[in-house]
């Protein structure tokens, strides 16, 4: 069977038509391999997979949309609670995809090698990594090589049939490469070339759905595969957003704070729910620093077909379960407007005298 990549528009259309399909569901084996058939009947039991809005009352976990969990890579983020929650969700029959970052580990490795990581600020105020060729080599070594393996092992030891993937594997995450970005240096706009990053525009949703149907929990990391056939960096929050959109999932973005604060310095100003475009504008205005990208990713996820997005504290008790139960900042699909006139490619609309396309927000983790 040939698998076709899923575009964000495909996922949104699938959610809007609310197609129902029935597939076989078998209990997860925690000793590896494919799930076993139902012990009483000898055949697989049925479940309903809804590619649309989440069931809020009744029904088993297997009948609800998948959960995509983004685990951050900052030093302050402890993944232990997330691992336990993933194990509980999967044991209860919920489909889960884990997407992880790892920028801190990449920086640490660069420094151990005697090299300095490079971060830039775009004219739009987004701060992110500039990934030159050497950084990309280290990135590929650390992210899919070490961090993905370590997290996959940890999940398997917790009883989860985890399977590690990079965005290159099976063409999971693909899109155009951005070799130049617009940056602010010494107060002036400049174009910085030689970047090894890209923008994810397609997700091989069929690959993920096949793995989920067979009882596996995919553990996904960048790099992505660019349109020129080169593995390049991509932002992990936005990778998680693309995956959640393709699967029509609930996206839980775990970070080191309780959510988005109206006053970034005051945790008591947590924004609990965002349901209208005006409330989303307020959310965007409140987001600063690293939170800017998470809000950007939330919009991309919802535009792409995700059911809802929650930004929550990775270090809370039962962080994923608590987020699904109401903690953190909940951003609903009704908060974003799919406006064709709105700039969705994150470019500045400016060009330099060479005519090259330089992206002002496609800096990465």
Q: Count of DSSP helices?
A: 9
Over all CA atoms, what is the radius of gyration?
20 Å
Report the structural category. Answer: alpha/beta
Q: If classified by CATH, what would the architecture be?
A: 3-Layer(aba) Sandwich
- Amino- and carboxy-terminal Cα gap: 35 Å
* Secondary-structure element order, N to C: EHEEEHEHEEHEEEEEHEEEHEEHHEHE
Beta-strand percentage?
Answer: 15-25%
Query: Looking across the biggest beta sheet, what order are the strands in?
Result: 8-13-5-4-16-18-19-17
Q: What proportion of the residues is helical, as a percent range?
A: 25-40%
- Looking at the structure, the CATH topology is Carbamate kinase
Q: Which spans have pLDDT < 50 for at least 5 consecutive residues? A: 11-59, 340-358
**Residue-averaged pLDDT:** 81
CATH superfamily assignment? Answer: Acetylglutamate kinase-like
Q: Strand tally, please?
A: 19
Characterize the largest beta sheet: strand count, sense, and whether it forms a barrel: 8 strands, mixed
CATH top level assignment: Alpha Beta
What is the domain total for the residues?
1
Overall body shape: globular
Region (Disordered): 1-45, 336-365
Pfam family, one: AA_kinase
GO molecular function, one term: ATP binding
Organism: Halobellus limi
């Amino acid at each position: 069977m040939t698998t076709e990549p899923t575009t964000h528009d495909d996922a949104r259309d699938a959610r809007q038509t609310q197609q129902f399909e029935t597939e076989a569901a078998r209990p997860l084996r925690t000793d590896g391999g494919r799930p076993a058939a139902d012990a009483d009947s000898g055949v697989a039991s049925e479940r309903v997979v809804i590619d649309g809005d989440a069931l809020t009352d009744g029904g088993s976990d297997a009948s609800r949309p998948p959960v995509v969990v983004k685990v951050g890579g900052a030093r302050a983020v402890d993944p232990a609670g997330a691992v336990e929650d993933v194990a509980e969700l999967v044991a209860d029959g919920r489909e889960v995809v884990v997407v992880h970052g790892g920028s801190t580990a990449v920086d640490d490795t660069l420094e151990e090698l005697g090299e300095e990581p490079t971060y830039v600020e775009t004219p739009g105020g987004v701060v992110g990594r500039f990934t030159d060729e050497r950084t990309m080599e280290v990135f590929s070594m650390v992210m899919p090589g070490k961090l993905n393996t370590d997290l996959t092992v940890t999940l398997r030891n917790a009883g989860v049939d985890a399977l590690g993937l990079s965005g290159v594997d099976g063409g999971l995450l693909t899109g155009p490469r951005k070799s130049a970005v617009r940056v602010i240096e010494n107060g002036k706009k400049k174009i910085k070339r030689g970047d090894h990053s890209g923008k994810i525009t397609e997700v091989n949703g069929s690959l993920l759905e096949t793995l989920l149907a067979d009882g596996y929990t995919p553990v996904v990391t960048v790099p992505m595969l660019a349109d020129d056939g080169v593995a390049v960096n991509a932002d992990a929050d936005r990778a998680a957003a693309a995956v959640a959109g393709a699967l029509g999932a609930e996206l839980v973005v775990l970070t080191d704070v309780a959510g988005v604060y109206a006053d970034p310095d005051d945790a008591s100003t947590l924004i609990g729910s965002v349901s209208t475009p005006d409330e989303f504008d307020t959310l965007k205005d409140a987001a600063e620093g690293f939170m800017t990208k998470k809000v950007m990713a939330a919009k991309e996820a919802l535009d792409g077909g995700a059911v809802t997005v929650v930004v929550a504290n990775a270090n809370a008790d039962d962080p994923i379960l608590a987020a699904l139960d109401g903690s953190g900042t909940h951003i609903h699909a009704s908060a974003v407007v799919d406006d064709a006139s709105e700039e969705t490619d994150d470019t500045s609309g400016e060009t330099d005298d060479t005519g090259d396309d330089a992206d002002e927000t496609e800096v990465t983790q």
